[in-house]
Amino acid sequence: MKALATLCLLALAGAAQAQTVTPPACPQLPADTGLTWEYRPAGNADFCLAKRADGSEVLGVFIAADPPFQPERRNRTEQGTVDGREVRWYRGEVASRPDVLVRETLVTLGDGRVAHVWVQARDEQTLAQEMQMAQQLRFPESRLSTR
Fold first, then answer.
1. What SS3 string covers 39-88?
2. For the chain, what is the domain count?
3. Residue 55: which pLDDT band, with cuts at 50, 70 and 90?
4. pLDDT tens digits, 112-138
5. Sign of the C-alpha dihedral computed for residues 23, 24, 27 and 33 taken in this order
6. CB 67 within 8 Å of CB 47
7. Contacts of 127 (CB under 8 A, 6+ apart)
8. In the prediction, which pLDDT does 141 show?
9. pLDDT digit string, tens, across residues 88-105
10. Distance of alpha carbon 45 from alpha carbon 130, whole angstroms
11. Which domain holds residue 115?
12. 3-state secondary structure of 137
């Protein structure tokens, strides 16, 4: 019985540890945020959602050869960086939730694919915090473009 209990504890510890590991397709999250990736393969693309312990979404990344996000100049907002690369952030919207503030950008990766990165928040302060987290994402070096 004691051996079974020990095995169960080890399995639970392993499951908890596995949740903190970055899926190979997702960028590395900033340290000490308490966020974990929820990863879903999407055909030839990768879909990563960074979530808090309560399950709420903080930011998302969709990596594909041709992401569906097409920035519009009229929606330009802040300039910034993601993984040390200069980016332009764009205002977005969630049709079903007009009260949500959205920012999104594109990052070209070294393997020719593009990462569409977005954040969603209910207020400006939270939006700024989440954008700061997004800007600290670290993509695997082999994927970053040298352009």
1. EEEECCEEEEEEECCCCCEEEEEEEECCCCCCCCHHHEEEEEEECCEEEE
2. 1
3. very high
4. 899 999 999 999 999 999 999 999 999
5. positive
6. no
7. 101, 103, 119, 121
8. 67
9. 999 999 889 989 999 999
10. 23
11. 2-143
12. coil
What CATH number is attached to the domain comprising 122?
Answer: 2.60.120
CB atoms within 10 A of CB 143: 18
Residues facing 41 on adjacent strands: 46
Structure tokens at 60: 């998302």
Say which residues have a Cβ less than 8 Å from residue 54's Cβ, sequence separation at least 6: none
Please report which confidence band the pLDDT of residue 24 belongs to, taking 50, 70 and 90 as the band edges. Answer: confident
Helix (H, G, I), strand (E, B) or coil at 128: helix
